[in-house]
Amino acid sequence: MSNERPKPDALLTAIQKEEAANRRASALSERAGGNLLFNNLAEASKADNVTALTRLRSSPSGLVWAEARRRLAEFGPNELASQKPPAWPVVLWSALRHPFNGVLTVLAAVSLATGDLKAGIVMLSMIVLSAGLRFWQEMKSQVQAESLRKLVHNETTVLRAENKNVDRKPNALDHLASDIPTRELVPGDIVKLSAGDMIPADLRLLESRDMFVTQSALTGEAMPVEKYEPERKLKPSEPAMREGLPVEVLDSPHLLFMGSSIVSGTGRALVLATGNHTYFGAMAEQLTGKRPQTAFDRGVRSVSWLLIRFMLVMAPTVFLLNGLLKHDWLDAFLFAVAIAVGLTPEMLPMIVNANLARGAIAMSRQKTIVKHLHAIQNFGAMDLLCTDKTRTLTQDKVVLIRHLDSHGSESKRVLEHAYLNSLFQTGLKNLLDRAVIDRAEQLGLREVAKTWWKEDEIPFDFVRRRMSVVLRQSKKEHILICKGAVEEMLDICSEVDDEGRAKRLTEEFREQLKVLRDQLNEDGLRVVAVGYKRLPRDHPPVTVKDECNLVFSGFVAFLDPAKETTAEALRLLRDHGITVKILTGDNAIVARKICRDVGLDLQHIATGAEVEPLDDAALTELAERATIFAKLSPNQKARVVRVLKAHGHTVGFMGDGINDATALREADVGISVDSAVDVAKEAADVILLEKSLLVLERGVIEGRRTFGNVIKYIKMTASSNFGNVFSVLMASAFLPFLPMLAVQLLVQNLLYDFSQIAIPWDYMDEDFIKKPRQWSAGTIATFMVCIGPVSSLFDILTFWVMWHVFGANNAAKQSLFQSGWFIVGLLTQTLIVHMIRTEKIPFIQSTAAPVVLATTAAVMAIGIWLPFSPLASAIKLQPLPSGYFIYLPLVLLAYCLLTQLVKVFYIRRLRSWL
After folding, report:
1. Whether 560 is catalytic
2. What is the pLDDT of residues 865-882, one digit of tens each?
3. Cβ distance 727 to 739 under 8 Å?
4. How far apart are CA 332 and CA 317, in angstroms?
5. Distance between CA 224 and CA 42 in Å, rounded?
6. In degrees to the nearest 10, what's the CA dihedral of 213, 217, 221, 227?
7. What's the whole-model pTM score?
């Protein structure tokens, strides 16, 4: 063996798939740097043991300790660079970084620079309140999410020698075994594996015995898969694909991957890659970049910039108009700043964050952790949910659901035969055996087993693919019961049990049994056959040769069943306008069976092989009509989510495996569960702490309530501000004085903002939460233009009344004019809260929450009181004559009636309101 030291760049080659056969994982593989001397994992899978050991500079006795320490220093520990939660300064900056906060900061600086200390402090307080609320809630959620992370210190058994001169015979290797921390594993190590072990790195088997591995976290397949070394001699009847390269490297029977675990069997394996260079590590590394923008981010940003652009146009217009007409540029400037503040929905960040925080608190009571606040609103906007199958829709456990005789009828006798075989076999029972035992004991067969004694057995092996036990009952003759793969069982059966009588197994009957087997497979069931044979009492110890001329008893069929709450949860989601699609790494047959079981409308099934060659346009068309995507790679799942988002959908993704992490991150709202792998929980926005999927429907309702309350504020503010600016422009053009002083406008704006603080706790009409709601800046602009001028009509009416009826028609009486418009403007703005919050008639068909009623009533009372209060002189208001209070209720009633009429017309024409 060469002593030449391996070059790091040769060891750090990419984990990739064979280009022709494994194109699905190419993007992932480019990120996954492997520390192995093979060009790819497919090559490692096909190499013989000598070649594999030579290429890794290892031996059957493993590495010497000195070389292992050198490699540990060179490649680093076998641990993932898990995505660390952001530090508090990053979270704080994220909370502060909002367009309106930027506008408020500039306006506050201008106000402070011009000596308007009160206005500056008010604006800065709004920034602190809004950003502080979001910072507090996100830090709290982050702490909760981190508490779910369980730090487990695992150990792995490796073969290590003190020097190279060690006896390398297989029976001399046991004394070389040492338990070391898994983080100290290095490429080239030889590890010993047994049932129950987690796979500590990416490995290549050197030898194995009866090894089954569950890879559900990686592939989505619930059933354990067989693993064996390349040198094992295959039975001629085994599928030819076992002798060549599998279509997917993950399907290779010779490779073991970090993140999977051993269900049964033992073996020795060569470490190919560790840490971030494993398939698992490459997946985790993909999650460290910037998260894609969600529907919530895009919606808030588009609405924010629409309103900011409106402000940037109107504030300079008011400044120039007043400066040119009244020739007092300083007053005009201060008034324009006040207009800019009034036009800026400065409470939007606070209203949004208060809504989201309230939703997160409500969800936490439903045993749900919301890691990212925007996920609450995205829940409500979601119109399409993509979900993995295993462990999300299904229980991730094997359950025996059918036990059929040769005619396809349910048979307790068949179950009894399978039960006795599984119960009396020696060694670790696999998932299928446990499922048989559980089902049989549920049906009361435990007592039956007490009458039987075990005499002998023939253990399972992967060549025969079956196992037998010999039992006796009292002094009766012995019976051999065999259970195994259907083809292998049919090969050794010459008779068939036909309602308790043994009949000859003809070729025609054999074909009928295969048809029955195929029908069960098409239902997504894994099928095992059972047979028996009576033996004389003095029969010698049984051998494999005795497994002949059996009586075919029947079939037992297994499934990973759907969770009890899945069907009801999917029905509720469908009732709320959400389409559900299955994106799974499992096969299409199993996915189709689950869809039927849970009542999911099955339209079209697509596979990863179909998805791979399609461009985005073709994939979008396929994604719109397909209900199930099967045999998808992790990158393909993320790509399907990405094209659906690009096509205008708000997409949720629910999954909990390593293979789901990329899609979870790509989705508008990623949903995982507390039992998920850490990588999936890190990528998710929401973590469900209970097994029931009904919490999804509750999340949708919370999201839609949150969206409704946010959109209420935006439409109230936008329409009210538009009406105010229109009124100001009209008044500025014809009045010899300002229609309202800057300080009065700021006080009015502050009181109006206070009336809206309670909106996050308002109710939403049932009709509103029945369907998904999307952000649309265009509809807000239309709403603003249609509803805003209504208030301007009554403002202009008030201008005329104050000028002609109450004589406020010169500069000396401008305080009276401004006080009259101050009250009317404030009260109409406050009433708009009730007019806009519902499509129905306010106070009659739909009433706001008590806290909203209280805040709006308080603001209206304060507004009427201010001109008569000791504060009036400070803001240059004055008491109004008694006749004004005859006009006030009339104008408010007329305003409400006209707004309701416009609302009805608007809904009829545009078929929407909020």
Report:
1. no
2. 999 999 898 888 999 999
3. yes
4. 11
5. 21
6. -20
7. 0.67
